[in-house]
């Protein structure tokens, strides 16, 4: 269908050019007086035939070029196209005004080619001025609101309750998987708009599709937390569709985005925290917040965990909670890949993360019984 439209347009253009230009060609060939050749019908027919043959050779290339232009335009924002078009129209209008005196010059090349060149240059400059300084154009065309003198004197801000005037809070992968960000945001302590970059979402999806069952659980937990944040009415969540293709690491992309939007990085990654501070990027560390309040677990509490690997010390086993917190279990190597009840002996909370030390619940009872037996023997 598109090729037929291109062919039809080229035939119409060929017929028009034939009527306009072929009389000159017949005059140069000495056939100006030949009424069979030099008439509007014959000239239009010859021009249409020539362009029809050209369309058979060029139609597919023209269609491909049009599709490429459509794809390029679809990738551009509407604001970019609007300001670019307005700038180009203004530039072309100025070019037409400047070119009027050039048409009256007696120099053949100057009065024909120079006006076209001037209009092309000014049209391009207008397009660039419109697209590269969009923020300034917005400020010019945005009407300024009248200020209330009484409110200015009383320092009262006219704003709605649901409006957000705070910096973006940009979440990284670790803090989403951790899950505590949902509870913090739900209580209202995390003000402003929560921003989820697409590259963080892709990393979460990659973790959720991992072959490692532990990573898969953590990734799915992170996706569940994101869905819960988005569905919560009192929490404003936005997505950032852009990406920094020249940067490979997600942490570096987060810092770059925070600088670009003047946002705050929210994380519980110790290394990202230090790098952000070094690059003067504001950062909120959930672990530091947890360190300032009561620990989540206290000695004597029981929990059900699964020992997944051996610890660094003799007979120790290591388990993980759903949020990735490491639990070091005494004598845990005897219960590899088993779900057991453990009793918390101590909890260590640092900026780098949280670590829980525990021992099997039945082991604790056995130790207590042995201690009681020893004491009775000593008394006897």
Automatic annotation (TrEMBL):
Any idea what this protein is called? TRAM domain-containing protein
Q: Which cofactor does it need?
A: Mg(2+)
What keywords appear on the UniProt entry? Hydrolase, Magnesium, Membrane, Nuclease, Transmembrane, Transmembrane helix
Q: Which PROSITE patterns match?
A: TRAM (PS50926)
Which InterPro entries does this one have?
Nucleic_acid_metab_PIN/TRAM, PIN-like_dom_sf, PIN_dom, TRAM_dom
- Locate the TRAM domain: which residues? 296-357
Keyword DNA-binding assigned to the entry: answer is no
Keyword check for Hydrolase, yes or no. Answer: yes
Q: Which SMART domains match?
A: PINc (SM00670)
Q: Which domain of life is it from?
A: Bacteria
Transmembrane feature ranges: 7-26, 46-66, 78-100, 106-127
Q: Which Pfam families match?
A: PIN
Entry GO MF terms = hydrolase activity; nuclease activity
Region forming the signal peptide? none
């Amino acid at each position: 269908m598109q090729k037929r439209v291109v062919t039809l347009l080229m035939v119409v253009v060929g017929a028009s050019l034939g009527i306009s230009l072929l009389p000159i060609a017949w005059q140069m060939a000495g056939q100006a007086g030949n009424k069979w050749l030099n008439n509007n019908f014959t000239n239009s027919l010859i021009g249409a035939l020539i362009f029809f043959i050209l369309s058979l050779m060029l139609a597919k290339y023209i269609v491909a070029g049009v599709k490429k232009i459509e794809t390029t335009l679809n990738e551009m924002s509407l604001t970019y196209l609007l300001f670019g078009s307005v700038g180009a129209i203004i530039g072309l209008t100025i070019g037409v005004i400047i070119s009027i005196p050039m048409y009256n010059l007696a120099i053949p090349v100057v009065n024909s080619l120079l006006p076209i060149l001037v209009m092309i240059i000014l049209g391009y400059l207008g397009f660039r001025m419109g697209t590269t300084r969009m923020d300034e154009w917005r400020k010019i065309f945005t009407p300024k609101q009248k200020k209330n003198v009484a409110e200015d004197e009383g320092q009262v801000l006219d704003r709605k309750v649901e409006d957000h005037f705070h910096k973006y809070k940009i979440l990284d992968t670790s803090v989403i998987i951790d899950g505590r960000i949902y509870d913090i945001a739900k209580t209202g302590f995390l003000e402003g708009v929560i921003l989820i970059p697409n590259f963080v979402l892709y990393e979460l999806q990659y973790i959720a599709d991992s072959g490692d069952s532990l990573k898969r659980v953590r990734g799915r937990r992170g996706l569940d937390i994101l869905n819960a944040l988005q569905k919560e009415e009192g929490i404003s969540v936005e997505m950032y569709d852009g990406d920094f293709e020249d940067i490979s690491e997600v942490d570096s992309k987060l810092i770059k985005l925070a600088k670009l939007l003047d946002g705050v990085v929210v994380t519980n990654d110790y290394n990202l925290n230090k790098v952000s501070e070094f690059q003067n990027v504001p950062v909120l560390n959930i672990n530091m917040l947890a360190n300032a309040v009561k620990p989540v677990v206290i000695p004597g509490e029981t929990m059900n965990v699964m020992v997944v690997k051996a610890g660094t010390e003799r007979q120790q086993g290591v388990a993980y909670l759903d949020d990735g917190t490491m639990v070091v279990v005494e004598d845990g190597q005897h219960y590899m890949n088993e779900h057991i009840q453990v009793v918390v002996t101590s909890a260590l909370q640092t900026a780098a993360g949280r670590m829980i030390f525990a021992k099997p619940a039945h082991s604790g009872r056995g130790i207590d019984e042995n201690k009681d037996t020893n004491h009775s023997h000593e008394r006897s």
